[in-house]
Design brief:
The complex is a heterodimer.
Chain A (H helix, E strand, L loop, with lengths): L12 E9 L13 H20 E2 L2 E2 L3 E9 L2 E4 L11 E2 H6 L3 E10 L5 E10 L11 H18 L7 E6 L9 H9 L1 E2 L2 E2 L1 E7 L7 E2 L10 H8 L6 H9 L11 E5 L1 H11 L7
Parallel strand pairs in A: 1-4, 1-9, 9-12, 12-14
Antiparallel strand pairs in A: 2-3, 4-5, 4-6, 7-8, 10-11, 13-14
Chain B lengths: L1 E8 L11 E5 L5 E6 L7 H14 L5 H13 L8 H8 L3 E2 L1 E7 L4 E7 L3 E6 L2 E6 L14 E2 L13 H4 L1 E5 L6 E6 L1 H13 L3 H6 L4 H13 L8 E7 L13
Antiparallel strand pairs in B: 1-12, 2-3, 3-5, 4-9, 5-6, 6-10, 7-8, 7-11, 11-12
């Protein structure tokens, strides 16, 4: 059986976000935010949640190492900056310590007496929205492969890394399928790297979530992203089901024409690696 | 009731301070409470300890009991002084099981109280004659309902049928020479699986009298991938005449 290793401080897992920052990510979604802004909000919130899962009263336990690779007009680079910018994958305790800034945001909540009050909550920001230039997807996935090959060598018994790739357009530097296949063939003793792809759209098309074959997909681009996506490990499929998604044994980790709600779900489901201990 | 053994093996044996299981006896030693704090919780070690100490002192579980426990937990933390990540983790709440057994020597009965997937296993010889609240090892794969420091998650304790479902009355006179083992989930799952597949292994468990012996069994079974890696607590109780084991860690 694969993808069953328990995650501990001595045997952490890794999440690597690969984020399209090309010019088209500036297009507005139905919420009024650009795709880049929404993805960066969802990513920052996901980082917060990962830290929350690792935080105990005595401190933050390094169950996870997390990285962000951005690609766009400035080429391929580390999505983190400051002291996190010197390496791609950082332990979650270092991420907790080093947000770029902490914003005060308003949140409405129950006042316990039947009313609603607005409170201020801290919202740390690690990843800034950016959208310009082309789409060097091959180069970004090549960078991901280099990072994860080294990580798997250093963590042979860990739950394998998960790649969460967010894009809104076709690769601008050649066919990415072979590179994605290489990434998905990297492995630890607990199984191969899980590659999840989400295509973000602002066109209002019907989203396609966790398809199980190419046959119903609308075009060759969607079929390419399907082939670039791993079958869902059973526990991730189970979590997707709990969130109300129709998932079969053949479902791949892929969403097409995703809007805001799907992006949030995708990050949440994709970061539910095996059991923490 | 006399305890032949009570002890625990942490998920990381070299970090016993990280063990989030807890147990406590009442002052007359006739009531034992055991709790397993969930790993993904901000301070489940404290929550598990609060629950067992409270139940050992006062077994009258109900809305007021639960509110007092939650209040006691929150009084131990200064939310305003926490960092953003501590606040975030704290807001996710803490969760824990609670399993308790109380013996009435006059009637020969034992009353069990259970929430979650910590289990009591009654054994006669090497045969499991009753396991509760779970009796099938497959059921440990389910997500258990747990007691929470978040009040909104404890509504189930006031639901119709909770009292009946959370209590079991055992007439021990029907099971002479029985032994009751109370344990947290990883050990409980292993025990019920062994009861079906290799019942002779129950002798290994029943023979444990020192924490080192429990650790040896747990570490070996983890290495053989027959037991999940989790904090593992075991209490071995008898209801006949006799002496308590010498040198119990927390009598």
């Amino acid at each position: 059986m694969s993808h069953e290793a328990q995650i501990s401080r001595t045997s952490p897992t890794a999440f690597l976000f690969v984020v399209d920052q090309s010019g088209s990510m500036a297009d507005r979604m139905s919420s009024g935010k650009s795709k880049a802004e929404f993805v960066s909000d969802a990513l920052n919130r996901t980082l917060m949640n990962l830290i929350g899962r690792c935080t105990k009263s005595e401190g933050v336990r390094d169950y996870f190492e997390v990285g962000v690779i951005g690609y766009g007009g400035r080429g391929v680079g580390n999505g983190f900056s400051g002291s996190l910018g010197s390496r791609i994958l950082n332990p979650v305790s270092a991420i907790e310590q080093n947000p770029v800034r902490v914003e005060d945001r308003k949140r409405k909540m129950d006042d316990g007496a039947g009313g609603i009050i607005e409170t201020s909550v801290k919202f740390p920001v690690w990843f800034e929205p950016r959208s310009d230039g082309g789409t060097p997807m091959r180069e970004a996935l090549t960078k991901a492969a280099e990072e994860l090959a080294a990580w798997c060598d250093a963590h042979p018994d860990s739950y394998p890394p998960t790649v969460l790739h967010v894009t809104d357009g076709e690769s601008g530097d050649g066919d990415p399928e072979e590179i994605a296949s290489n990434v998905a063939q990297l492995r630890t003793n607990d199984g191969s790297v899980v590659v999840l792809n989400i295509h973000v759209s602002s066109l209002g098309g019907e989203p396609i979530k966790f398809p199980s074959s190419e046959s119903g997909l609308p075009d060759s681009y969607a079929k390419l992203l399907f082939r670039m996506s791993s079958p869902l490990p059973p526990h991730i499929a189970g979590f997707a089901k709990e969130k109300g998604h129709a998932v079969s044994a053949d479902s791949r980790g892929f969403m097409f024409n995703a809007e805001a709600g799907e992006i949030v779900d995708f990050f949440d489901i994709g970061t539910r690696a095996s059991q923490l201990r | 009731m006399r305890a032949l053994f009570v002890g625990s093996c942490a998920k990381e044996p070299d970090r016993p301070e990280g063990n989030e299981d807890a147990h406590a006896f009442s002052s007359d030693q006739q009531r034992l409470a055991l709790s397993d704090g969930a790993s993904e919780s901000y301070d489940s070690k404290l929550w598990a300890n609060l629950l067992v100490r409270k139940f050992a002192d006062d077994p009258q579980f109900g809305p007021e009991w639960m509110e007092a426990a939650v209040s006691a937990y929150h009084s131990e933390h200064d939310f305003a002084a926490m960092s953003w990540s501590q606040q975030l983790a704290s807001e996710r709440g803490c969760f824990a099981t609670l399993l308790a057994v109380e013996h009435d020597a006059a009637t020969g009965r034992a009353t069990l109280f259970g929430v979650g997937d910590s289990v009591a296993v009654l054994v006669v010889g090497r045969e499991v004659v009753r396991a509760w609240p779970l009796d099938d090892p497959e059921r440990f794969k389910e997500r258990p309902t747990l007691l929470s420091t978040l009040r909104e998650h404890n509504g189930f304790t006031q639901a119709l049928g909770f009292d009946a479902a959370s209590r079991l009355d055992l007439d021990l006179r029907s099971f002479p020479n029985s032994t009751l083992m109370c344990m947290t989930d990883a050990l409980g799952e292993w025990t019920l699986r062994m009861a079906g597949e290799q019942p002779e292994r129950l002798s290994d468990l029943l023979a444990i009298r020192r924490e080192e012996e429990l650790a040896a069994l747990v570490v070996a079974e983890r290495a053989a991938r027959r037991m999940r890696i989790d904090d593992s607590t075991l209490a071995i109780l008898r209801f006949d005449e006799g002496e308590d084991a010498v040198g119990l860690p927390h009598p």
